[in-house]
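Re: that backbone. Tokens:
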């Protein structure tokens, strides 16, 4: 499945991440495009590429917060439309795995004809209209079920918040790992701590 990393401050661990994107802990490659988002004061940069990250590396290292996502296609074809991060209702979000959202809620929240990753971004944005971040995430776990993972990393630029959400089926492959204000889909060396090894929903909300 897709690999991703996000953090507050300038970009770190990028070279280690590129190695993981080329061959992760299961020996899987992630060649189906990559994208990033950088929030820096009042500017937001989002770029997406159809080439693998190790073939077309382009990344500014300065910023207040960042997200990087390397895609491994499973159901949907290789296309820039499916490259993360996605933007909806001001949320910039990258997702790892697959998840289910009830059809009735998809209609209620106007999520039809979107990928699961886009639906997560739009749903979180909608929930934040009437809730604080903690309340929105509590509502989210009652709606979304991991198949096998509803993990996401999200920037909320207007709040200057970075969210790391770890909710999966118990496979360690879908555990998010943290170190020094950075969250990664795999540990990128020593000193990384797991966010949710057992898969039960857990999240970090970081100011930046």
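Recovered sequence:
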């Amino acid at each position: 499945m897709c690999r991703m990393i996000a953090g507050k401050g300038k970009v770190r661990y990028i070279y280690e991440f590129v190695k993981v994107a080329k061959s992760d802990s299961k020996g899987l490659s992630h060649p189906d495009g990559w994208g990033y988002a950088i929030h820096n004061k009042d500017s937001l940069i989002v770029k997406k590429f159809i080439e693998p990250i190790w073939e077309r590396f382009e990344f500014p290292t300065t910023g207040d917060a960042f997200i990087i996502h390397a895609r491994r296609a499973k159901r949907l074809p290789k296309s820039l439309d499916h490259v993360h991060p996605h933007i909806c209702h001001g949320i910039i979000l990258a997702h790892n795995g697959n998840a289910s959202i009830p059809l009735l809620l998809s209609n209620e929240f106007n999520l039809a004809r979107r990928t699961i990753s886009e639906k997560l971004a739009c749903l979180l944005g909608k929930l934040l209209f009437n809730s604080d971040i903690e309340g929105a995430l509590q509502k989210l776990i009652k709606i979304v079920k991991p198949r096998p993972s509803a993990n996401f990393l999200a920037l909320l630029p207007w709040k200057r918040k970075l969210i790391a959400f770890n909710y999966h089926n118990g496979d360690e492959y879908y555990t998010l790992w943290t170190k020094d204000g950075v969250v990664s889909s795999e540990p990128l060396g020593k000193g990384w701590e797991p966010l949710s090894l057992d898969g039960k929903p857990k999240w970090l909300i970081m100011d930046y």
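The two ends are 28 Å apart (CA to CA). Helices lie at 14-22, 103-108, 116-129, 133-143.
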